[in-house]
Design a protein that fits this description.
The chain is of the alpha+beta class and 153 residues long. The chain contains 5 helices and 6 strands. The chain starts with a helix and ends in a 15-residue tail after the last helix. The mean pLDDT is 89.
Length: 153
């Protein structure tokens, strides 16, 4: 069984290695015949309000990555989302993020979590940084891991 300290230690290690302003981990929970995602751990966060966010599959950053099982890169949030659509992506607003990358984390052949790396400045998240996050996640975060076949290049 993995404990909270393991998850927290791993995301802090990834944040230091990548230089991201924030690294956050959302975990999948089963809720009445559907899945919910909740941001459980973060390093570099502005406050703990992110923990109140609950997303359905396909909603928000974590929901999109969970549903597709693929990495997501938004090097400039404003290029991808209109300002009035930001309410659908609460982590971006709460943490004042301008540039993000997110990866699915797997356990037993299913997406069981989402790893988000972000910056509070535009154009900071790159393919190379997302690749670095993926390579670090393949080694495992608690009982979760990335998949080698998801390599971006």
């Amino acid at each position: 069984m993995t404990n909270k300290a393991d998850y927290q230690t791993e995301i802090e290690r990834i944040r230091l290695a990548t230089g991201c302003d924030i690294i956050a981990l959302a975990l999948v929970e089963t809720a009445e015949n559907q899945y919910e995602l909740k941001w459980k751990y973060a390093s570099g966060n502005l406050n703990n309000r992110f923990k109140q966010i609950v997303l359905q599959s396909g909603r928000g950053v974590a929901g999109l990555v969970f549903k597709t099982g693929k990495p997501l890169l938004m090097s400039s949030i404003s290029d991808f989302l209109e300002k009035d659509n930001l309410f659908n992506y609460p982590i971006l607003t709460l943490e004042k993020l301008k540039s993000i990358g997110a990866l699915p984390l797997w356990h037993d052949g299913r997406v069981a979590g989402v790893l988000l790396g972000g910056f509070r400045e535009d154009l900071r998240m790159t393919d190379d940084l997302l690749q670095c996050m993926l390579e670090m996640s393949v080694k495992g975060i608690g009982k979760l891991d990335g998949r080698k076949e998801l390599m971006l290049n």
